[in-house]
Design goal:
The complex is a heterodimer of chains A (221) and B (254). Chain A is mainly α and 221 residues long. Chain A has one domain. Chain A is 81% helix and 0% strand. Chain A has 11 helices and no strands. The two termini of chain A are 26 Å apart. Chain A is globular, with a radius of gyration of 18 Å. In chain B, helix 3 runs antiparallel to helix 4, helix 4 packs parallel to helix 6 and helix 4 packs across helix 7. Chain B has one domain. With 254 residues, chain B is mainly alpha-helical. The chains are: A mainly alpha (221), B mainly alpha (254). Chains A and B meet through helix 8, helix 9, helix 10 and helix 11 of A and helix 5 and helix 6 of B.
């Protein structure tokens, strides 16, 4: 357990240091949300109607952008070899990496939604709803992305291929994330149903990702 | 034959050289049979099957469209079974089978999408609607493309096979979830506006050509798969020989 926590702490420290880029994805999220009104026009009614969709799309893109270095940096400086040989099971090491990455990307995104929601004129209930759906859904996004990151760890230019192979697998998370947020803003379905399915998808993705990611890292040697 | 004998013959077949010899003998017959059955199926589709009372002659697109959709899923199943073979038994033929199935599956998925679009134009008035079935096939096509892209971005064949096998199996788990979530999404966004084939049972005059076409195209898919596997085995031999030659330039005679 202490090795697991040490790995999480190491990744968080690395992300917070210069060059770690820990909060870059938050900045990227903000930039994407800011670009949308320039494309669609400043109509606040339209923006508040599609606000949850914008925030979710921005979250997917921010997750995709940040993921390519998840295992690549470890592969380059040799710490991946240490993880492969360590007594801590590789599956748990992958889980620790996913957790640390989520704390530096998914969690801040969800917490900052009340701020960014103002830009797309979300109502207060809408902001809470989007924040809750992002809290439930972003672990799944990070987990799915981690499989892609593990598969592309040894590639020099893995970023684009990572996005191509991972994005179709994120479709279910996106569907239920946005429909849960829309359900909270008033709709025919109750909020809890899509939220429960979203949480189920996230948990399933975590289980699959931990084993698939570890297998990918072993296979990459 | 005993179980052990059966297993032994399976492993014999799994030897790439024996596979090349056997598939070389089977392939012409298989390809000929596929062409024959597909020709009969096409004849029935165009001349014996009646036009639909609502859709007229455009219903004949179905005889290509529906088998393509089946084969798109069937080839993904072949790819997933081969992926298991790669990961569990580390079998080189499984690698080869995986790699050969991907472009064929992608081609049938694309064929399904294109015929669907051509059928949709006269029926729904537009080439594309975000209908649940179309959307899930579209996502399947994107997954196929991702798999092919991953094959093309890792140069060592063994490592590429293991990476793709993991992606294929993750996709295998994900495809039913995609199907389910797209159905949910579709009922939220637009009411069912699309005609379905689920009313009365399909009349035999339509069902028979459909089944014949399905058999013909499945045979064609298997023939293409075998031929793709043979090409890939030969490609790997060329690759190995090239590497050997590069290691020993003097013996290579250059």
């Amino acid at each position: 357990m202490s090795a697991f926590l040490a790995l999480v702490r190491r990744d968080l420290t690395l992300a917070a240091r210069i060059g770690g880029g820990g909060f870059l994805s938050l900045l990227f999220f903000l930039v994407v949300v800011a670009l949308v009104p320039f494309a669609l026009g400043p109509d606040l009614n339209l923006l508040s109607r599609i606000g949850p969709a914008i925030l979710w799309l921005a979250a997917v893109m921010a997750t995709l952008i940040g993921l390519d270095r998840l295992f690549q940096a470890d592969e380059e400086d040799g710490s991946l070899d240490v993880m492969l040989g360590a007594p801590l099971p590789l599956e748990l090491a992958v889980l620790a990496k996913i957790l640390a990455h989520w704390i530096t990307t998914g969690l801040p995104l969800a917490l900052c939604v009340p701020l960014f929601g103002l830009l797309v004129a979300l109502s207060p209930e809408g902001m809470v709803a989007v924040a809750v759906t992002l809290l439930a859904g972003t672990p799944g996004l990070t987990a799915i992305g981690a499989v892609g990151a593990a598969l592309t760890a040894t590639m020099r230019r893995g970023g684009l291929i990572l996005a191509v192979i991972v994005a179709p697998l994120m479709v279910p998370t996106l569907i239920f994330g946005v429909s849960a947020a829309n359900a909270a803003l008033g709709g025919t379905v109750p909020f809890a149903t899509p939220l429960a399915i979203l949480a189920a998808i996230s948990l399933t993705s975590l289980v699959v990702a931990v084993f698939a990611g570890a297998a990918a890292l072993r296979g990459g040697e | 034959m005993t179980a052990a004998g059966l297993a032994a013959s399976f492993w014999n077949l799994a030897n790439p050289t024996r596979f090349l010899a056997l598939s070389g003998r089977v392939l012409p017959w298989l390809a000929g049979l596929a062409a024959l059955v597909t020709a009969i199926g096409l004849y029935m589709a165009f001349f014996t099957a009646p036009p639909d009372y609502q859709q007229g002659d455009t219903v004949r697109i179905m005889f290509i469209h529906v088998p393509s959709a089946w084969l798109a899923l069937f080839l993904y199943a072949i790819m997933s079974a081969s992926a298991l073979g790669t990961l569990v038994w580390r079998h080189p033929l499984a690698d080869v089978s995986q790699k050969a199935a991907a472009p064929i599956g992608a081609a049938f998925t694309l064929l399904c999408l294109v015929t669907g679009a051509l059928w949709g134009k006269p029926m729904w008035g537009t080439y594309w609607v975000w209908d649940a079935r179309l959307t899930s096939v579209f996502v399947l096509f994107l997954i196929y493309c991702g798999i092919i892209a991953l094959w093309r971005s890792i140069d060592d064949p063994g490592r590429a096979a293991r990476a793709v096998a993991i992606l294929t199996l993750v996709g295998f788990v994900n495809i039913p979830i995609v199907k389910f979530s797209v159905d949910w999404w579709n009922t939220l966004h637009q009411p069912a506006s699309v005609f379905r084939l689920d009313g009365p049972a399909i009349h035999p005059t339509i069902l028979t050509p459909l089944l014949v076409m399905a058999v013909g195209l499945s045979l064609a898919a298997v023939a293409l798969h075998l031929s793709g596997m043979r090409t890939e085995i030969l490609n790997r031999r060329i690759r190995t020989l090239t590497i050997l030659q590069a290691d020993h330039p003097a013996e290579g005679g250059i």
